[in-house]
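User: Teach me something about this protein's shape.
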Amino acid sequence: MEGDDDMPGHVKSSLMGPSLNIPIQNGRLALGTWQGVYLNEHRDQGGWGGGHTRRIIITIQGQG
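Assistant: First, the predicted structure itself:
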């Protein structure tokens, strides 16, 4: 159930974390065989296509 303060979404977000670091090797994501990257929406209303917009920021750091 989603309330005025969206507490369930805040709890779920705190469990999953707000950011992710993934090593890149030879121009590809260095993930294990069974690893993947997933984007989760923690709101029952809104979110993708429901009136709220999301912005994803990707920062790449490395050696040239």
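Now, about its shape. The longest strand covers residues 24-25. The two ends are 48 Å apart (CA to CA). If you'd like, I can walk through any region in more detail.
User: That's plenty for now, thanks!
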